[in-house]
Specification:
Chain lengths: 246, 408
């Protein structure tokens, strides 16, 4: 099954009901993502790109169509199984960090392991390791209020990778960050990708999408274009950038 | 189990972050549980006092008193009307099948003298059955027996107080004292009964045979009896015995149908039951207060948990999105509500015990609280957490993670 794609969407349609009116968010979308790709989904707001990401992350279910994740049909799974799948296979990086307030970085990162019933000692060790991997060793006990935006997003990334996911889903991962910090964060995502994790990232900025090796453009609930590209190298870009003014 | 172990510290953390709010929320439960503990404890305490008093009176006791006379509208009180007689006593002894004992009782207050010591006390004249009826027991010596009683022997039995006042530490048995100038040998000392419910010293008495009493303390009158004590064969038979005694005495006194009794039969069990009922009514009212307070406390917890769930919508969204199952989120908020109300329950138990101790010392009854009630109070507070925490917890668990994450 080496050739089995990690994601295979066929004829996915999602319609929202607002009162009497049915609003189509996605219409008949086909999309296949191979293992260890880094895909950027780009489109203006309202194009359906967030809906697509939510469906991919099993946070939502399609109105019609088929979604094979690692060859398994998940479009019709019950809620309980979707939770288990999110816990074991996906890592989420949300827009606006979405860390739990007044809670230390370590506890935030360890949260998925709590729900996976990992024993407390191993939980702390793995959370620490994940924080070190995103360059936040020594900041374990800072709460989000004590961390900068870039650091908070790194905590979020550490949380996404702590349960060793096969797929990382990122929704506007650099939305609230300045250019330099954005590139830093993208460098981190690229290094995870190189480490063997499939990444799907939603953005509305072409500059950000340029760091992926495949670009899918969504407009009005349909895929407008889908092509491979040579990704920018975040590490190289960062080296070329002037140091941030203190 | 591991899930619970990780959730409980989480719940404590969440409650500590809003300590003041948590305390105020738990107040209803604190007051409710406290009131429950005070109620139960004071109920048990006052009942213990009542039972103790009943026991010193003799549980199956009926007292027959002579009727009162009415002359020109002024009622003379007991003893002013037709007196009871020794024949009445015999009729009761022979005719009342529900009565085990019947004894005459006359009394007077006299000076008891031993050498250069003397003491003013109440002297009772009765028969040996008196000791059985009043459930007296002996500290030392013996009661006078029926032959001494019938022959009018000059013997007497001392209460603890009289023995102490006249003899101090020395041995009273076999000693001869003078009771209203009559020499009298002490054959027994009664065990102490302590104070009565009216604060009277029940040990301040001397008992001698009724015949001796009537011939030596009174003026040779062996017909009239001051009062008659009757003991029913069992507590259940008290009212039956009462009916029988009334019937016999009406016949003895040749009373016509419709005529009012010219005597009174007092049933002490009734009296005690009335007192107990009054105490029960009081504790019942307090218990209602406790129940209402617990209900209000539960609603308070539900209210604050709903507020908390709304406030923490994003947190719930995060937890659900990263893969927490609905059950885990439900459990988290349920445990939080339970910790809140259980903590309130523990505080309530502490305050309740404090209140019950204070009440017991002011009212002069013993502090009684069975551990079972502490457990029950705690269990109730836990149950309140579960019952009133369930709806908010379910609301949290059933959130849509996408909407919850977007919540501002």
């Amino acid at each position: 099954m080496a050739s089995e794609p990690i994601i295979r969407l066929a004829g996915i349609t999602k319609t929202y009901k607002t009162g009497e009116v049915e609003v189509p968010a996605l219409v008949d979308v086909d999309l296949t993502v191979e293992k260890i790709e880094m895909v950027a989904i780009m489109g203006p707001s309202g194009s359906g790109k967030s809906t697509l990401l939510n469906l991919l992350g099993c946070l939502d279910q399609p109105t019609r169509g088929s979604y094979l994740f690692e060859g398994r049909e998940v479009a019709t799974l019950p809620k309980r199984d979707l939770s288990a799948l999110r816990l074991s296979a996906f890592g989420f990086v949300f827009q606006g960090f979405q860390l739990i307030a007044r809670t230390s970085a370590l506890d935030n990162v360890a949260l998925p392991l709590v729900y996976a019933d990992v024993p407390v000692g191993e939980r702390r060790a793995r959370a620490k390791e994940a924080l070190a991997r995103v360059g936040l060793a020594g900041r374990e006990h800072h709460t989000s209020a004590q961390l900068s935006g870039g650091q908070q997003q790194r905590v979020a990334i550490a949380r996404a990778l702590v349960n060793r996911p096969r797929l990382i889903l990122a929704d506007e991962p650099t939305g609230a960050l300045d250019t330099r910090t954005s590139v830093e964060v993208l460098g981190l995502v690229q290094s995870l990708h190189k480490g063997g994790i499939t990444v799907v990232m939603v953005t509305h900025e072409p500059d950000i999408a340029a760091y992926a090796d495949r670009l899918v453009v969504v407009r009005d609930g349909r895929i407008q274009s889908d092509k491979k590209q040579i990704p920018h190298d975040a590490a190289a870009d960062l080296a070329a950038m002037p140091e941030k003014a203190a | 189990m591991r899930a619970l172990a990780s959730i409980i510290p989480l719940a404590f953390g969440a409650l500590r972050r809003n300590l003041m709010r948590s305390l105020l929320t738990a107040l209803g439960v604190i007051i409710g549980v406290g009131a429950l503990i005070v109620t139960v404890s004071s109920g048990e305490g006052s009942k213990a006092v009542l039972e103790e008093q009943l026991a010193t009176l003799g549980t199956n006791l009926l007292i027959v008193l002579p009727g009162s006379s009415t002359s020109g509208g002024a009622r003379g009180g007991p003893g002013s009307g037709k007196p009871l007689t020794h024949a009445d006593l015999l009729a009761i002894m022979n005719g009342a099948s529900a009565a085990r004992y019947a004894a005459p009782l006359d009394r007077t207050v006299v000076q008891v003298v031993l050498d250069n010591q003397n003491w003013l006390t109440t002297v009772y004249g009765s028969t040996p059955d008196f000791f059985a009826i009043r459930e007296w027991s002996l500290a030392r010596g013996r009661f006078f027996n029926s032959s001494e009683s019938d022959s009018g022997a000059k013997v007497c039995v001392f209460g603890q107080t009289v023995a102490k006042q006249l003899f101090g530490a020395s041995e009273p048995l076999g000693q001869v004292v003078r009771v209203k100038s009559m020499p009298c040998q002490v054959v027994g000392v009664l065990a102490s009964k302590g104070q009565s419910s009216q604060g009277q010293d029940q040990d301040d008495l001397v008992v001698m045979p009724w015949v001796t009493f009537k011939s030596r303390m009174m003026s040779q009158d062996r017909i009239h009896v001051g009062s008659i004590l009757v003991s029913a064969i069992s507590p259940d038979e008290v009212s039956h015995a009462q009916t029988q005694v009334i019937g016999i005495l009406r016949q003895q006194h040749r009373q016509l149908d419709g005529q009012l009794d010219d005597f009174t039969v007092r049933n002490l069990a009734d009296l005690a039951a009335t007192q107990e009922k009054a105490a029960d009514a009081q504790t019942g009212m307090l218990r209602n207060v406790a129940a209402v307070s617990l209900l209000v406390g539960g609603i308070g917890i539900m209210n604050i948990m709903l507020v908390s769930v709304t406030e923490r919508t994003r947190e719930i969204g995060i937890r659900l999105a990263i893969g927490a199952s609905e059950n885990r989120v439900l459990l988290q908020f349920l445990v939080e509500a339970m910790v809140l109300s259980a903590a309130g329950g523990l505080l309530g138990i502490a305050f309740g015990i404090g209140g019950a101790l204070a009440l017991a010392s002011t009212m002069g009854w013993p502090f009684v609280l069975s551990p079972l009630w502490i457990f029950v109070a705690f269990a109730i507070s836990m149950a309140i957490g579960v019952i009133f925490g369930f709806y908010p917890a379910r609301k949290a668990a059933q959130m849509n993670p996408i909407d919850a994450l977007r919540f501002e």
